[in-house]
Amino acid sequence: MEGSTTETTTTTGLGTVAPPPPEFEKSTSMHVLLAIDDSDESFNALQWLLDKILKRPHAGEDDNRVVTIVHVVEPLPHYAFPGGYGTYPVVESMNKSQEQNAARILSKAYEICREKSVKAKTLILEGDPKDKICRAVEEMNIDLLVVGSRGLGQIKRLCFTGSKTFDLILFYLQQQEDEEMLVPDLVEGPQPLVEGPQPLVEGPQPMEVAPSDNAGAVENQASDEPQASRFTWTIENFSRMNTKKLYSEVFVVGGYKWRVLIFPKGNNVDFLSMYLDVADSANLPYGWNRYAQFSLAIVNHMNSKYTIKKDTQHQFNQRESDWGFTSFMPLNELYDPNKGYLVNDTCVVEADVAVRKVIDYWTYDSKKETGYVGLKNQGATCYMNSLLQTLYHIPYFRKAVYHMPTTENDNPTGSIPLALQSLFYKLQYNDTSVATKELTKSFGWDTYDSFMQHDVQELNRVLCEKLEDKMKGTVVEGTIQKLFEGHHMNYIECINVDFKSTRKESFYDLQLDVKGCKDVYASFDKYVEVERLEGDNKYHAEQHGLQDAKKGVLFIDFPPVLQLQLKRFEYDFMRDTMVKINDRYEFPLELDLDRDNGKYLSPDADRSVRNLYMLHSVLVHSGGVHGGHYYAYIRPTLSDQWYKFDDERVTKEDVKRALEEQYGGEEELPQTNPGYNNTPFKFTKYSNAYMLVYIRVSDKDKIICDVDEKDIAEHLRIRLKKEQEEKEDKRRYKAQAHLYTIIKVARDEDMKEQIGKDIYFDLVDHDKVRNFRIQKQIPFNLFKEDVAKELGIPVQFQRFWIWAKRQNHTYRPNRPLTPNEETQTVGQLREVSNKAHNAELKLFLEVEHGQDLHPVPPPEKNKDDILLFFKLYNPEKEELRYVGRLFVKSSGKPIEILTKLNEMAGFAPDEEIELFEEIKFEPTVMCERLDKRASFRFSQVFTKRPPTASDEKLRFPDVPSFLEYVKNRQIVHFRALERPKEDEFSLELAKNHTYDDVVEKVAQRLGLDDASKIRLTPHNCYSQQPKPNPIKYRSVDHLIDMLVHYNQISDILYYEVLDIPLPELQCLKTLKVAFHHATKDEAVILNIRLPKQSTVGDVLNDIKTKVELSHPSAELRLLEVFYHKIYKIFPINEKIENINDQYWTLRAEEQVQNFGEPFFLVIHDGETLADVKLRIQKKLQVPDEEFSKWKFAFLSLGRPEYLEDSDIVSSRFQRRDVYGAWEQYLGLEHSDTTPKRAYSASQNRHTFEKPVKIYN
């Protein structure tokens, strides 16, 4: 097993874990599904989940916390395995390396859970991650799905469409700075392994763990030229060694000291254990780390091809200073003298080590190091960042963007030109990385779009088309065409007659084949390759009939800026999926498209234009077909200096990193030390060029032009400089915060303003009162002078009180500051008054006014004086207001101040009033009537008009009933479920309203007589979408139960008006079924509603009454179809209650199936393919001419075996009844004539796919 020598059950290098969102409350009873990969962020998510969400129960409580940890493995494409692309082997399942790596990841997660005493189950799933997670969610009764794997970001689109009720956290969205997502798209670098007992993993248990295939990803955090070396260690008398472990001598690679560590008898296993160790780890400074790719080998003396070699990569640090293989090779093989590993009792160990230095991401200053700044990542926008950097560094394009007309009244979030101008300006003049949120908002994107990785090529086209449209009618009209537009000629020329057809077309970029091409020139050769139209494929020429012809493409002209899109992603028809082509593909620094006497040019091309290009930028994709990371290598001035733009970080790079290392294929590290085994140290590269930008040499000076402030509109400069100054002020404010104290001063005026409007309980909201930012060393007496200037209250008339939180959680001014305290500094006073040690000091400013309303000195306060505050409630108007404060003696009685209270309230002196004491308001309201003859001590008093005979007409005749109403009052915004973003109406309800109360109110508002036809659906506060499941009839007690989402209360509900009462509907099951007619092309979508106890047979009978059949006696069947494959035929007697139609398509069909869809066919024993073909042709009604071109193959696990007409078809198929996609098919290979849009990187095409769109 790969890992460290030590057993460790705690996580390492997790960094700062983000706080949980406020709506998630710790729970001791929760089933969580956690999707992880081998990145640090995944284990951050697990640690965060255990620390912040799953609370350890108290003694005596049941512990019902369960975490199911899932790792999804995508089978690697054919090119990653021995045999290479030439033999084109097809991989039908994950290989051993992937399986072992998955077990390693889950082992670590399992140990972390075990240490936290949380029940954990682990599961390896194989296939497309998003589809597999969806299915897992559907089959498990989970409460919460946590996505800790960036590759699963798109799961966010799926979680609201299922039939299960659960909540979702995308862990990456929790990490923010300045309201901008700063999360890298791909967490890069090798990950540590925690050894120890293996978790329960479904599938075969691995003996060892080979390295994960992320060598390409590691490149993103390593820099400088790799330094490599081979170390050979010869160990004599090997079998007679009694030591448990043995170190080699120290060797140096990359300036670092290394050594090999072996356990001759195994590290508690029956295998030789071998590791690479940092030799001087004990003496290195705190926080050290280094990264190495390495292989370890035991040489076979008899035959070098039997040498055992394993390779991996690791970032070594203080916690993990050694890394390698616990189960390197079985001891019985090593010590067998006939195997050749020990000859003359001598063992030879080889270590190939390649070292790259690692950049410290957190302290690195891109502007200082390179002169350029990066772009912040909003979650999954690296593809956009790499494109924007490329466009920005085409100065002619940047200048044109600056010259697009905008005004000072434009809003960047609503204007693409202004947002792009703003972004480019900040890239040019900022000192730190730039946010892209304004730009994406101007696109009309929401958080979903920002977290959905798209294809950079697709975005490039959409953005350029949008800018081209925005530039029309302006001084920069036509810029996009001038820069990027070229033209080619499609021609068909007859061979035997004089006829030629041509068509001129424009292009902004060229799609070049990678597969089967060694370099760009080979792709251009293929692009202009002549196709012969002959035989059955003759061309129909006007007036000449069918003719043999030549078909091809030639270029009329190339643009000044040539964008080449490399077709790294292709559809594999044999495997019915997208694959990434990682083959080696070279591209030159100088591209000569006039080569070979202009063989790419049409006869109409202007030969005076020299089509010699210089490479300007290389956009790189690192990862696989379902996700990955984009970054760009650019040389902004076309000098020899290249730069890597990787989201926020910009680094200097040499030409080798920008070119050769982005060719793809395999990387081979050089040999520097001869040894017994001279096999090169190789690893497959999954980072490779995806888009190339070339600039024509003759246009270089025009395109790489100077762009300075005079090109930027004055209003834009003013606006952006002001933004920059405000940002700098904010930064400076934060940096100096520790030197200041915020003093919040509440006054009578604040209470008059707030009580009865913003607040009803307590006295004041301190966040809405006047605050002062005062240096801590300033004496408080000087602060009083500032207050005098600001508020116009002389110092001698000011008396400040300290607020205190009482046992009932209410806040009151507790005592005045003493003269001695007022001589202290503001900082000292804050420390005395504030036990929480925050930066705030809350004070109440007491100011007394004379009869002329001018301030007067505050009255003397004795020890038995109490300051009381009074509110007046008016039951007729249902109003509460603040009326003032009084000093009373603690031994006094309320009856003594009734006259004064009437005066404060504006009543007659002898008006009868009632007094109430406000005691508490959380978790319930407590407000008690006061005995007017009782003591004042500790009382808080309310006043009101006395009860009258008309009380029964008042909704809230007294203070307690009014406060109870305020406490429970809830404004609810109702939205129609089919329009979930639009508020339809609002109702004032009470949180303690029953289910019947709520639906009755909604029915009244809608003018509906039968309230039972109202169905409500709760709101997900996190996603801002309706929850998947509606509220069942009378399944909740009160309105608050409908609104609560963990510990956050929503104010939104969604409603539907049903055609039948909800109690009746709940006894029915509704299924969405696609009906396929035997002879018609289009499917009919039906909504079938039947009692839950109905069977599939009942469904089919109901369908027969709603559709036109090909003939009255036609038989139907119900199928489950997903991703173009039939998963199940439903038995006629199966109950429909448990059938799910949320993720999978339910299809009802007659015996004949439409063209282009999978279908069933009965094959008889002994029937030949020729017989079967006749029946298939008849069923599908395919013409003879077309059908003669079809090929037939037996497919097992995706691998085709082509059949001859004489083959017995039935002998190929096994007879078995299984659930799951059929693993055996009769495949029909023919041309696909249905229109399709090309698939592109990082896009999994299924029901929930969304293309790139810019809406504004």
From TrEMBL:
Domain annotation MATH: ranges: 228-353
CDD domains, sorted: MATH, peptidase_C19C, USP_At3g01520-like
Pfam families: MATH_2, UCH, Usp, USP7_C2, USP7_ICP0_bdg
Biased composition (Low complexity): 1-16
Alphabetically ordered keywords of this record: Hydrolase, Protease, Thiol protease, Ubl conjugation pathway
Catalyzed chemical reaction(s): Thiol-dependent hydrolysis of ester, thioester, amide, peptide and isopeptide bonds formed by the C-terminal Gly of ubiquitin (a 76-residue protein attached to proteins as an intracellular targeting signal)
PROSITE patterns: MATH (PS50144), USP_1 (PS00972), USP_2 (PS00973), USP_3 (PS50235)
Domain USP, first and last residues per copy: 373-697
Protein EC: 3.4.19.12
InterPro entries named in the record: MATH/TRAF_dom, Papain-like_cys_pep_sf, Peptidase_C19, Peptidase_C19_UCH, Rossmann-like_a/b/a_fold, TRAF-like, USP, USP7_ICP0-binding_dom
Domain of life according to the entry: Eukaryota
Chain spans, region Disordered: 1-23
Keyword Hydrolase found: yes
Record-stated family: Belongs to the peptidase C19 family.
Protein name per Swiss-Prot or TrEMBL: ubiquitinyl hydrolase 1
Source species: Penstemon davidsonii
Taxonomic lineage from the root: Eukaryota, Viridiplantae, Streptophyta, Embryophyta, Tracheophyta
